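quick one, 115 residues, struct below
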Amino acid sequence: MKHLPLIILCIIAFFFLKKRFFDNTDYKSMLANGGIIIDVRSSGEFFGGHIENSLNIPLGDLPDKLDYLKDKNQPIITCCASGMRSAGAAKLLSAKGYTNVVNGGGWSSLESKLK
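---
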């Protein structure tokens, strides 16, 4: 039990590194098929830099803003600063019935994948 925090940290690091370096999701195709990017950072963070044409809906506001996302089959890519909040947003959207949602991770990393 004394190694539990270290084990948990290693698991989190594994998933972070896997997403960052071994992500084979075709984000360009998702956008080409009518997809959108939802940046769930705060407005201040968003205006400090963001992906062009992304939609800023802070994570705390997302449950109240679902009316902006009428098509539950539309491809949706969530992003934030590191991938943690966007993972929560992707999980929330999936729980609300959205069928084509992926966590794009950190916005700057996602932006480089889109170029």
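The chain has a mean pLDDT of 90.
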